[in-house]
Automatic annotation (TrEMBL):
Species the sequence originates in: Stappia sediminis
Listed InterPro entries: Na_symporter_ssu (IPR019886)
The keyword Transmembrane is assigned to this record: yes
One Pfam family cited in the UniProt record for this chain: DUF4212
Swiss-Prot/TrEMBL keywords: Membrane, Transmembrane, Transmembrane helix
Descriptive protein name: DUF4212 domain-containing protein
Domain Sodium symporter small subunit: residue ranges: 10-85
Segments traversing the membrane: 21-41, 53-73
Length: 87
């Protein structure tokens, strides 16, 4: 029983760590690049507009979509590692 409990704790630690780092990356990209660093990025042009505006309008959405697929991929690997996969 203790082994199952330890395995469950390790599984949730890994899951929460993955969620935490995904949210940190998304916050840096959306808030950091789109708002805080926008004046510094205004000189760089991408797609006819400055890079800060692009991050605020589209870049953070693209990063969020990439993080969704990354999270799903890593969670499938974690599920297999801890033996809780659906297959």
């Amino acid at each position: 029983m203790d082994n199952d409990k330890e395995s469950g704790i390790a599984y949730w630690k890994a899951n929460l760590s993955l969620v935490k780092w995904s949210l940190v990356i998304w916050a840096i990209v959306s808030f950091g690049f789109g708002i805080v660093l926008r004046p510094l990025l205004s000189g760089i042009k991408i797609g006819g507009t400055d890079l800060g505006f692009w991050f605020a309008q589209q870049g953070s959405i693209y990063v969020f979509l990439i993080l969704i697929f990354f999270y799903a991929w890593r969670m499938n690997a974690l599920d297999k590692k801890f033996g809780v996969d659906e297959e």
